[in-house]
Amino acid sequence: ALLKRFQLSRFNPNAPFDWSEGELVASGLRNMVGYSRGPDGNLYGVVNGIDALAYRGENVRDENPGEPLVRLDPGSTFGFPYCFTAQNIKTASGTAQPGAQLASDAEGFTNPHDDAWCQQNSKPPVSFLPAHTAPLDITFYTPGSVRSLPEAWSGGAFVTEHGSGEASPSVGHNVVFFPFGSGQPSMPRSTDNPPSYPFTIVFGGGSSSGHADGEWGWRSGSNGDDNVRPVGVAVSP
Fold it and tell me: How many CB atoms lie within 10 A of CB 234?
């Protein structure tokens, strides 16, 4: 659950780096598969949230956690395994703000920390994707690159949603686009239940009548081994 930095100038092919030699950049990242440098010079990553999640002893796994999109500032701590990103959570004082950092009661785990600790020690994401969409990669369409895509996409990020067996039926299975606007995307809107998201669908299932979230295949009605589950995304030259 760590991101580390290694000085390539010191690399010796006859003596590979030891993991312990790396400089710690960010921690508390449960499963960050994809990360990339944005046009603002910062690193951003997408994270798969906690499975089998409970909150204050109640099963909340169907609608939580939000799958974080994080900015990887040096020294950042993101809370795993103690904290999670709230998507749709009821607390004693009402509905939690989407993106709030709350204390996890994941199955088989005793958490020594509470919500107050998480709010002080777990950096919130800049935005998040729906629970169990399993984002695996992020890439930016940077200003100055070959102008083959709509101008409105300049400076924003494409994210793949692989889909997860944690949700039934599976959700995601898309490539989505996050506009970064004034430097980073917005959080999902808290006035909607469930929250509404700031991204748009670029590629996914459905038909000529519109997009449909969840499992889909290249052939009409296909699923199982034919499911489309996006993993990597890149902008071609």
Answer: 8
